[in-house]
Amino acid sequence: MTTTKKTIQDPDLARVEAALQRAAQKARKTARDTRTPLVIYKNGRIIMQPVEEEMH
Fold first, then answer.
1. CA 41 to CA 47: how far, in whole Å?
2. Is residue 38 within 8 Å of residue 27, measured between CB atoms?
3. Are 14 and 5 in contact (CB under 8 A)?
């Protein structure tokens, strides 16, 4: 199976994925630093997940 890569013409949209990854990384760091769980949406449910569990 071949994978095709789409080129995004809009420069703002082209940077969205990197920005979301940075935001997720910062959220994990904040949760770890404050010893609070991450609140995530998974399989149609809202879950409070400890950072250690999420990182594995």
1. 6
2. yes
3. no
Q: Flag whether pLDDT at 6 surpasses 80.
A: no
Helix (H) or strand (E) holding 23: helix 16-34
Chain segment 8-46, per-residue pLDDT in tens: 888 888 899 999 999 999 999 999 999 999 999 999 999
Q: What angle do CA 9, 20, 25 make, to 5 degrees?
A: 150
The reported pTM is: 0.67
Residue with tokens 């910062």: 26
Q: Where are the domains of the chain?
A: 16-55
Q: What is the CA radius of gyration of the chain?
A: 15
